[in-house]
Specification:
- The chain contains 7 helices and 6 strands; from the N terminus they run H-H-E-H-E-E-H-E-H-E-H-E-H.
- With about 170 residues, the chain is of the alpha/beta class.
- The two termini are about 25 Å apart.
- Strand 1, helix 3 (about 45-60) and strand 2 (about 70-80) form a beta-alpha-beta unit.
- The protein is globular, with a radius of gyration of 17 Å.
- Strands 1-2-3 form a 3-stranded mixed beta sheet. Strands 4-5-6 form a 3-stranded parallel beta sheet.
- The model has no long low-confidence stretch (mean pLDDT about 90).
- The chain has a single domain, classed as 5'-nuclease (Rossmann fold, 3-Layer(aba) Sandwich).
């Protein structure tokens, strides 16, 4: 969503649960999960502390009674001055597979363009479950589109409805 011009503070207004219900259409939602690498900042790193605080606010928003999301935490690893999420795709893949094997869902809706998920998606489909890939029209993952049962690409205007209008 950052690529579409929204920033961390904007996500504190985003109606994640309403968005999930919109994606699910008339289907029952068993759970909503948010997979993310957790910011761990050293005490003397001011920017890292600010990022950590923003992330903690987002977590509180996601876990609030209005949103009811489960947060699945990975970690961030610094490599050549660039941070990379680690463990996030594995947690998502495991949850997809366990849910399929345990018959916890008929359809999983995945909002991720990480092609590392494709083997898990193929196995989930082999087990008779459906996987809907939700991506963004400005940056689709053709691998995820071709591997999923159904794909849907969102445009910015579709997402705007999940930000409450600010009173001026």
């Amino acid at each position: 969503m950052k690529d579409l011009g929204w920033h961390a503070q904007d996500l504190l207004r985003f109606k994640f649960r309403v968005f999930a219900q919109w994606l699910a259409r008339d289907r029952i939602i068993m759970s909503c999960r948010y997979y993310v690498g957790v910011v761990r900042a050293e005490d003397d790193n001011q920017k890292g502390q600010e990022l950590r605080q923003k992330q903690q606010k987002l977590f509180a928003h996601l876990q609030s009674p209005n949103q009811q999301f489960i947060i699945k935490r990975g970690f961030l690893m610094k490599n050549d001055e660039v941070y990379h999420e680690k463990g996030v795709d594995v947690k998502l893949a495991v949850d997809l597979l366990v849910g399929a094997y345990d018959n916890l869902y008929d359809t999983a809706i995945v909002i991720s363009s990480d092609t590392d998920l494709i083997p898990a998606i193929k196995k989930v489909k082999h087990l008779g479950k459906q996987v809907e890939y939700i991506g963004f029209s400005h940056q689709p993952s053709f691998g995820m589109q071709s591997s999923s049962s159904l794909s849907r690409l969102l445009i910015k205007e579709e997402l705007e409805q999940f930000f409450p209008k600010l009173l001026v």
